[in-house]
Design goal:
Elements: H1 8-14, H2 19-25, H3 35-42, E1 48-57, E2 67-76, E3 82-86, H4 94-104, H5 108-111, H6 116-130, E4 134-137, H7 141-153, E5 167-170, H8 171-178, H9 188-194, H10 205-220, H11 223-227
Parallel strand pairs: 1-4, 4-5
Antiparallel strand pairs: 1-2, 2-3
Length: about 230
């Protein structure tokens, strides 16, 4: 008799004997809405994890145009601790598949192992190890939406979605409101231009989190002290 496959939720549960401890810690951070609070947090003991996603459009005829996870990267602020994972899927167009194979220098059989399930499993293990207080992003609406959609497709239980229990810190939303007095609308590339930060590879998740890290470094400075 063939054994049934273990679901991603079951795998995550089996690998988390101290899940309750992790869950309790991850809910303790306060919400951040101003740059003054950002300054205080980046200069304090809190641990910040910057997260960015890139996407591809599902080419399957039954669900054309569906946004899917193509790349996910994260970096702990002020540290070298980071991850960067690509997703390879038969749902990609042939052009997207070929582009990814060339970028990663992989055979098709090797790339097939880069499934959403395997990638999310690695990301969740990273989050459990680091236990960040804040999940920093640049406009997180699409990122978190797609992340949860992928988790739904994998039937990943809510208790297994670590990112939902980390206090979100949407840097774009805070800067747009606090600096430009509007609700949204400044791209990461534009913000890098304003701060004179070199961003040679926009729309690659690993490079975008590097830029988020540099913007956090900027707001960690005491600007009044620098001006005097």
């Amino acid at each position: 008799m063939q054994k049934s496959k273990t679901s991603l939720s079951e795998l995550i549960t089996l690998e988390r004997p101290n899940w309750q401890q992790t869950q309790n810690k991850a809910t303790s951070a306060n919400a951040v809405t101003t740059l003054k609070q950002v300054h205080e947090i980046v200069n304090g003991p809190a641990k910040l994890l910057s997260l960015d996603l890139e996407f591809y459009s599902d080419c399957q005829p039954q669900m054309p145009g569906t946004t899917r996870l193509g790349q996910i990267a994260g970096r702990v602020y002020g540290e070298d601790d980071a991850f960067n994972y690509y997703v390879f899927s038969s749902r990609m167009t042939a052009k997207d598949q070929l582009s990814l194979l060339k970028r990663l220098d992989l055979r098709y059989s090797e790339a097939e192992r880069l499934t959403v399930a395997s990638v999310l499993k690695k990301v969740l293990k990273f989050i459990d190890r680091v236990q960040p207080d804040y999940l920093v992003s640049w406009d997180n609406r699409l990122d978190l939406s797609v992340l949860n959609q992928e988790a739904n497709r994998l039937q990943l239980a809510q208790t297994g979605r670590s990112w939902t229990r980390i206090q979100p810190l949407d840097l774009e939303k805070i800067i747009s409101s606090d600096v430009f007095d509007k609700s949204s609308g400044i791209s990461l590339a534009r913000m890098c231009d304003l701060l004179r930060l070199q961003h040679p590879k926009p729309h690659l998740a690993d490079h975008d989190v590097l830029m988020i890290d540099k913007i956090l470094q900027f707001y960690a400075l005491d600007l009044n002290e620098l001006l005097h």
